[in-house]
Amino acid sequence: MSRKNEEARMILPKGMKYITVLDFEVGKVFQYEAPEYNQCEDFEGYLSGIGHNLTNCEWMVHDSNEIITN
Protein backbone atom coordinates (compact mmCIF):
# COMPACT_ATOMS: atom_id res chain seq x y z
CA MET A 1 0.00 0.00 0.00
CA SER A 2 1.42 3.40 -0.95
CA ARG A 3 1.84 6.21 1.57
CA LYS A 4 -0.94 8.18 -0.14
CA ASN A 5 -3.33 5.23 0.26
CA GLU A 6 -2.35 4.89 3.93
CA GLU A 7 -3.07 8.58 4.50
CA ALA A 8 -6.42 8.29 2.71
CA ARG A 9 -7.52 5.61 5.19
CA MET A 10 -6.68 7.66 8.28
CA ILE A 11 -9.62 8.24 10.60
CA LEU A 12 -10.11 11.91 11.43
CA PRO A 13 -10.89 13.20 14.92
CA LYS A 14 -14.48 14.09 15.72
CA GLY A 15 -15.42 17.77 15.77
CA MET A 16 -13.85 18.66 12.43
CA LYS A 17 -16.45 20.95 10.89
CA TYR A 18 -14.86 22.65 7.90
CA ILE A 19 -12.91 21.72 4.77
CA THR A 20 -10.55 24.22 3.21
CA VAL A 21 -9.38 23.50 -0.34
CA LEU A 22 -6.46 25.16 -2.11
CA ASP A 23 -7.43 24.55 -5.75
CA PHE A 24 -4.49 25.13 -8.09
CA GLU A 25 -6.58 24.64 -11.27
CA VAL A 26 -8.68 27.74 -10.63
CA GLY A 27 -6.26 29.60 -8.34
CA LYS A 28 -8.76 29.94 -5.50
CA VAL A 29 -9.24 28.84 -1.91
CA PHE A 30 -12.61 27.31 -1.01
CA GLN A 31 -14.10 26.60 2.40
CA TYR A 32 -17.04 24.27 2.98
CA GLU A 33 -18.94 22.98 5.97
CA ALA A 34 -17.74 19.40 6.34
CA PRO A 35 -20.21 16.58 5.86
CA GLU A 36 -20.48 14.06 8.70
CA TYR A 37 -17.60 11.86 7.55
CA ASN A 38 -14.71 10.55 9.58
CA GLN A 39 -12.35 9.10 6.97
CA CYS A 40 -10.20 10.95 4.47
CA GLU A 41 -11.38 8.80 1.57
CA ASP A 42 -14.97 9.96 2.23
CA PHE A 43 -13.90 13.60 2.03
CA GLU A 44 -11.97 12.94 -1.17
CA GLY A 45 -15.11 11.48 -2.75
CA TYR A 46 -17.11 14.49 -1.58
CA LEU A 47 -14.59 16.98 -3.00
CA SER A 48 -14.40 15.13 -6.32
CA GLY A 49 -18.18 15.06 -6.46
CA ILE A 50 -18.43 18.85 -6.17
CA GLY A 51 -15.92 19.36 -8.98
CA HIS A 52 -12.44 19.51 -7.46
CA ASN A 53 -9.65 17.65 -9.26
CA LEU A 54 -7.75 16.13 -6.33
CA THR A 55 -4.54 15.83 -8.33
CA ASN A 56 -4.42 19.65 -8.43
CA CYS A 57 -5.66 20.43 -4.90
CA GLU A 58 -4.50 20.45 -1.33
CA TRP A 59 -7.15 20.22 1.38
CA MET A 60 -7.56 20.01 5.12
CA VAL A 61 -10.36 19.40 7.60
CA HIS A 62 -10.44 21.55 10.73
CA ASP A 63 -12.68 22.78 13.53
CA SER A 64 -12.75 26.56 12.96
CA ASN A 65 -13.86 28.65 10.00
CA GLU A 66 -11.54 31.49 10.98
CA ILE A 67 -9.41 32.81 8.12
CA ILE A 68 -6.09 34.32 9.15
CA THR A 69 -4.66 36.76 6.61
CA ASN A 70 -1.46 38.05 8.20
Describe this structure in words.
- The protein is of the alpha+beta class and 70 residues long.
- It is 23% helix and 26% strand.
- It is built from 2 helices and 3 strands; from the N terminus they run H-E-E-H-E.
- It has helices at residues 3-8, 40-49, and strands at residues 18-23, 28-33, 57-62.
- The protein has a 3-stranded antiparallel beta sheet with strand order 2-1-3, with no helix packed on it.
- A hairpin with a 4-residue loop joins strand 1 and strand 2 (28-33).
- The mean pLDDT is 82.
List keywords for this structure.
three-stranded antiparallel β-sheet; 70 residues; single chain; 2 helices; 3 strands; 23% helix
The SS-based structural class is alpha+beta
The main β sheet shows up as: 3 strands, antiparallel
Please state the average pLDDT score.
Answer: 82
Rg result: 12 Å
SS element count, helices: 2
Please count the beta strands (DSSP E, at least 2 residues each).
3
Question: What's the helical proportion of residues?
Answer: 10-25%
Shape: globular
Spatial strand sequence of the major β-sheet: 2-1-3
Strand percent estimate = 25-35%
How far the N terminus sits from the C terminus, by CA atoms, comes to 39 Å
Order of helices and strands: HEEHE
Task: Show unreliable segments.
Answer: none
